[in-house]
Amino acid sequence: MFTTELIQQFKELETPFYFYDTDLLDSTLAEVKKYAQRYDFTVHYAVKANTNSEIMSRIAKEGLGADCVSGNEVTQALAVGFQADDIVFAGVGKSDKEILTALEADIFCFNSESVQELEVIQELAQRVEKVARIALRLNPNVKANTHKYITTGLEENKFGISLSQLPEVLQVLEKCKNLELVGIHFHIGSQILDLENFRNLCQRLNEIQDTFEEKNLPLKHINVGGGLGIDYRSPNSNPMSNFEAYFQLFAENIQRRPNQKIHFELGRSIVGQCGSLITKVLYLKEGLKKKFVITDAGMNDLIRPSLYQAYHKIENITSTAETAETYDVVGPVCESTDCFDKNVSLKQTQRGDLLAIRSAGAYGEVMISNYNLRDRAKSYCKDWLLNQ
Ligand code: LLP
After folding, report:
1. pLDDT tens for residues 339-360?
2. Of 272, 304, 333, which residue sits at a domain end?
């Protein structure tokens, strides 16, 4: 991934920074489109994974829709070229201002999460004389077998409407003249590697669809959310998720009705592998039991390891040493959890070396904070670096 020419460029730049391999992003998008089109599936990019405008506009150019979770994400999606009628808007806590932003833009659909939210959307839609299309986000109570912080489809999670509340929801919808029920929405969690979890979702979804039809409510749209995982351990040998198997599973397991549209909201699997956080080694420190590599990137630049105990592969991309050593790779922030990984085998490392923290394209740059008043890391795309 890192050619000598690129590394030469990296050495000129202030660190830490995010680097995006735009060739990999393009080939990932080509793969997503190829297999989604095979079944006439509609894919919305889950903007929350990476809101870098260069990345977003590349995705918009490929014709994907956008899945947004805030008014600002809707505004940004429109600004970079996503079409309003390809935008869905989800989230348990949409503010009035955000709902109005989406109504004014006339987005395709609100993924609605509660009775009270439906009532508020109705009131606001009536005020601005619009009709809001609604997909009910239902909680399917399906396990995702992923980290507990990124599991969403269980009854104990705050997301979605539980099925027992459906009669009440439908009653409310009937009264709301400015709401049009167009479909249902699910999302069971993120970084899901075992496709069996999605098969379980399909089974639940088929039962739920039958319930709607028994009530004489045919569903034009079914949105199955996102969650397809990536291989954090082997980004070089496995840079793309298995989109073929993923889409095929849904095609084989959803009892799709004629002319029904199936929607997906993929974030991590589209942008995760194309991003790396490039950081410089500030110091080597010999502890009593350990050797520490202290980097100029910290948990404020990439919070996933400290927040979810997430693994990211780390490589020394400038060392020419023949031998390797074992280090704890830590950041400069005043927190013990500011550690990227422990007992990492790296080529013998010294002050000034550059490390690449891999698979950081999703939920990396977007989750930056300026804790400790640290600077915000910049970002660079491969084609920009090579063509300047
Ligand atoms: N749709 C909904 C309703 C979601 O809540 C999410 C992610 C997605 C789609 C996209 O899921 P993906 O395809 O990216 O798995 N910050 C965490 C991940 C949080 C995911 C939140 N929801 C992390 O770094 O692992």
Report:
1. 999 999 999 999 999 999 999 9
2. 272
> Is any ligand 1 atom within 6 A of the Cβ of residue 49?
yes
Chain-wide mean pLDDT for the chain? 95
Chain centre to alpha carbon of residue 135: 20
CA distance 382 to 65: 24
Distance separating alpha carbons of residues 142 and 139, to the nearest angstrom: 8
The last residue of a domain, from among 219, 251, 272: 272
Predicted pLDDT of residue 288: 87
Residue 192 Cα to ligand 1 midpoint, Å, equals 10
What CATH number is attached to the domain comprising 205? 3.20.20.10
Decide whether any atom of ligand 1 lies within 6 Å of the 225 Cβ.
Answer: yes
Question: According to the model, what pLDDT value does residue 1 have?
Answer: 83
Partnered with residue 17 across adjacent β-strands are: 278, 378
Let me know: does 303 contact 380? Beta carbons within 8 Å: no
> Is 112 touching ligand 1 by the criterion CB < 6 Å?
no
Residue 144: DSSP 8-state: -
Shared domain for 103 and 53, answered yes or no, is yes
Q: Would the pTM count as exceeding 0.90?
A: yes
Stretch 241-266: mean pLDDT: 98
For residues 362-372, give the mean pLDDT: 97
Residue 364 Cβ < 6 Å to ligand 1: no
The residue whose CB lies within 8 Å of the most ligand 1 atoms, and thus the one to mutate among 59, 193, 268, is: 268
Q: Which domain holds residue 355?
A: 4-17+273-386
Question: Cα–Cα distance between 69 and 85 in angstroms, integer?
Answer: 16
* In the predicted structure, residue 234 carries a pLDDT above the cut 90: yes
Answer whether residue 155 shows pLDDT above 90: no
Whether 354 and 234 map to the same domain: the answer is no
My answer on whether omega of the bond before 16 falls inside 30° of 0, hence cis, is: yes
Cβ 313 under 6 angstroms from ligand 1: no
